[in-house]
Design goal:
The complex is a heterodimer of chains A (509) and B (111).
Chain A (H helix, E strand, L loop, with lengths): L37 H6 L10 H15 L1 H9 L11 H6 L6 H16 L1 H5 L11 H10 L8 H5 L6 H14 L5 H13 L7 H19 L14 E4 L10 H15 L3 E3 L16 H18 L3 E4 L3 H15 L13 E2 H10 L15 E3 L3 H6 L8 H13 L30 H7 L1 H14 L3 E4 L2 H10 L10 E3 H8 L15
Parallel strand pairs in A: 1-2, 1-3, 3-4, 5-6, 6-7
Helix pairs in contact in A: 2-3, 2-9, 3-9, 5-9, 12-21, 13-14, 15-17, 17-21
Chain B lengths: L2 E4 L2 E4 L14 H10 L6 H17 L5 H12 L6 H7 L4 H8 L10
Classes of the chains: A mainly alpha (509), B mainly alpha (111).
Chain lengths: 509, 111
Amino acid sequence: MEQLEPPQTGTRELADPLEIPDLAPGCMSASKPYAAAAEFQEALGYPGELVENWHDVAIAKMGELRGKYRSFRVFLDSCVKCGACTDKCHYFLGTGDPKNMPVARQDLLRQVYRRHFTLAGKFVPWLVGAKDLTTEVIDDWYSYFHQCSQCRRCSVFCPIGIDTAEISMAGREIMDSIGKGQKYSNEIIGKVHKIGNNLGLPAKALKATLADLEEEVLEDTGVPVRFPVDEAGADILLVTPSADFFAEPHIAGLIGYAKVFHQAGARWTISSYASEAANFGLFIGSYENMREIALRIRKAAIDLGVKRIVFGECGHAWRVAYSFLNTLAGSFDFLDQNYPIPQHICEYTNDLIEGGKLKFDKAKNDHIRLTFHDSCNVARGSSMGKTPGGQFEIPRAILRASCSHFYDMAPDTIRESTFCCGGGGGLLTDDLIELRKKGAQPRMRALQQVAEDHGVTHMAAICAICKAQFSKVLPMYGFDMEAIVSVHQMVSNAIILDPIGDGAQTGEN
Amino acid sequence: MDAYVLDSHSYEHDEEGYLKNLSEWNKELAVLIAVDEKIEMSDEHWEVVNFLRDYYEEYQVAPAIRVLVKAMKKTFGPEKGEQKYLYQLFPYGPAKQACKIAGLPKPTGCV
């Protein structure tokens, strides 16, 4: 793998994250993820391989989606080709392939839609850019709908509000329905249906991992911080990405949640049945699969008799939870209505900070100069807390409370304009590593700037995908792989623990 | 289907080189897979591979990275009980690359 020069303070001109590349038509046309084998397709209710009458099935599916989702139809009908989106996609900025301009990505589907669902497209297709669905077009779909991380940055700049993410989700769903699915996402969704999480972590392994963490934290701090599993009668069900039980720096964040719960005196539990916050059903545009995964959370909450549901650090999980959970898997009238349903762990922690219930020794993080990467699904697909923009302010408030040195990256690369990590939307797979590296470029350049200007050493995030992606690509841009940290890792480092939690299980906060 | 060939016996693997049939694994095959990964197996490599296989047999999944780090620390001392040391052994990542050599499935998800 080619290594880029490490950033050296004050020695060179840094590249602009927003710099528009020279066009390189077709340079990414060969980028395609592995296809899902029949067993992974069929487990999700899709044909195992390309069906014989794939053309007609695809058009019928497009018609079904057009009838079902008003947004899909509006997005396809309303583009005026103004060009505002063309330079907003990180994959375009990183590759220069014009088919990674959001409007061009949309047009891959729109050209076929026009041919079949508009009058002009039916009779004078050559006048309106309408095209038949051919094998070549399907190949383009497979390639370029898997070069969209569904981050929605383009939609922020579209004057009409067209959301390319929804078009790429529809494209993937149509492909799944004809037997042309992607291995990474579909294999994982199958594991959640069968075992309860993306990792395929059985209950026995989950319990062993958490017991191990209890021991470790006790050794490190001398305080018996608990990591409870399947404890009926707990007040709070924590739903978190299974990467939090496996990978670094994810686990360090999980330890942070446990310390916060300890300090709050909360009775909380993880469920071995709903041991996953992530919901890849979103990425493949499948309402049915998304619902089936979400229903596991509802069942776990009922079975354990909890009063509240709190979500751990996972970007798209929070979008599904915040924006869809109630209609997808509700109602949740059996939970305590005095608390947000669901609540984000950052909101939970920040409420405790604001209430003066958490104390920090910030010196513990003095070796870190920190910035924050807004994860796309949290930034543009949800909110947090009681005031608009809470999804931006709350994580930053937590970081400022636990660390003395915090510096934001350039304003046009954060908050609602944040750049994707390069691995979101079901693209965090080794077979797309070249795409992931190139797509990370705008974020890496913004990080290089803030490293140069303020000596920033670490970047925090609240998304398991972002964390895994950055661990992989940071070294390709001259940074240490451990420069990516969990927000609750910073909390974990600095929080001052009492031997026994002082909230006394009153369900305060 | 792609396969590793050893002593005129072939062992099927998936697109990414992970064994299809986990029970077919043996030490000679591990060395062959490691060669494909440009890794020469040392005692430390074997320690990781053996630990992964034992853990998998017990739990049906690969261990968390820090569980692996701890195990290495116990056997080889503190300077080898570091995540970075594991990455020196398995540059593409201890979880994915070591699992492949150990004949175990690839860890999936946001990892």
